[in-house]
Amino acid sequence: MQRIYVHPLPVRIWHWINALGFIALIVTGVQIRYAGLIGLMSFRTAVTLHNWIGLVLIGNFFVWFFFYLFSDKIKVYHPELSPMKHFRASFRQLQFYGYGIFKGDPNPHHISAYHKFNAMQSMTYQIIMLLLVPLQICTGILLWDVRRFSGMVELLGGVRVVDTVHVLIFIFFTAFIFIHPYLASLGHTPTAHFKAMFTGYEDAEDDPGRT
Ligand code: HEM
């Protein structure tokens, strides 16, 4: 059985801190948003926790960002530069998730050290890490001290606009936290990809394709 090292240590550390932090941000975020409806903790505690965890995750984001920026592993995020080929591969993957997987078809994606993501994953993760997370960080910082950043807030259309963007991305991430582990459980065993995110290694021979 061939074991391929796919998740370097900084990515694994970033990922699990990020996952725990996101869950805590969602819980405290729900408490802040629905203060009158839920009583998990006081409003003040929820705000304080939300701010501190958010701050930790901003630092953690840069672990991921700088690791990929200064390592050749960045290739895992753009192995295919032809948009047409990328689109076709994404479509094949979508067909597999929506239909083929239920008939026992093999996964069209084949893993290797510099090709750990299927086309759908590499696109989704890039949108999340390079667009949605930075947007959430920026709107979060503005909402953290609306008075201090009032100039920028007004420039963007006011608190309502900034808050709406923050909440819409929050809704996306709440859905993502369920869909992402489901897709990650579609390896050659349900726990294979989870184990790999702890050990760094994927089994390639038993798992020629992956999610
Ligand atoms: C319950 C929480 C979570 C679990 C169980 C989980 C599980 C996993 C697993 C098993 C992988 C590696 C295999 C694969 O990509 O299919 C992975 C990768 C990834 N996850 Fe998560 N995840 C969680 C939360 C999150 C959250 C909140 C984010 C939001 C940004 C996230 C973003 C990513 C990214 C970007 C990768 C690829 C990492 C890289 O190699 O660059 N995950 N996750």
Biggest sheet layout: 2 strands, antiparallel
Helix-strand category: mainly alpha
Mean pLDDT: 93
Task: Write the element-wise H/E pattern from the N-terminal end onward.
Answer: EHHHHHHHE
Oligomer: single chain
Please give the number of β-strands. 2
Shape: elongated
Q: Round the Cα radius of gyration to an integer and report it.
A: 19 Å
The separation of the N and C termini measures 19 Å
**Chemical compounds bound to the protein:** protoporphyrin IX containing FE
Helix content: 55-70%
- Strand residues, percent: under 5%
Describe the structure concisely for a colleague.
The protein has helices at residues 9-33, 43-69, 83-103, 119-144, 150-155, 159-184, 192-199, and strands at 3-5, 201-203. It has 211 residues and is mostly helical.
Structure description:
- The chain is an all-alpha fold and 211 residues long.
- The protein has helices at residues 9-33, 43-69, 83-103, 119-144, 150-155, 159-184, 192-199; strands at 3-5, 201-203.
- The chain has a two-stranded antiparallel ribbon with strand order 1-2.
- Helix 1 (9-33) runs antiparallel to helix 2 (43-69) and helix 1 (9-33) crosses helix 6.
- Mean pLDDT is 93; it is low at 207-211.
Show the helix and strand layout.
Elements: E1 3-5, H1 9-33, H2 43-69, H3 83-103, H4 119-144, H5 150-155, H6 159-184, H7 192-199, E2 201-203
Antiparallel strand pairs: 1-2
This protein binds protoporphyrin IX containing FE.
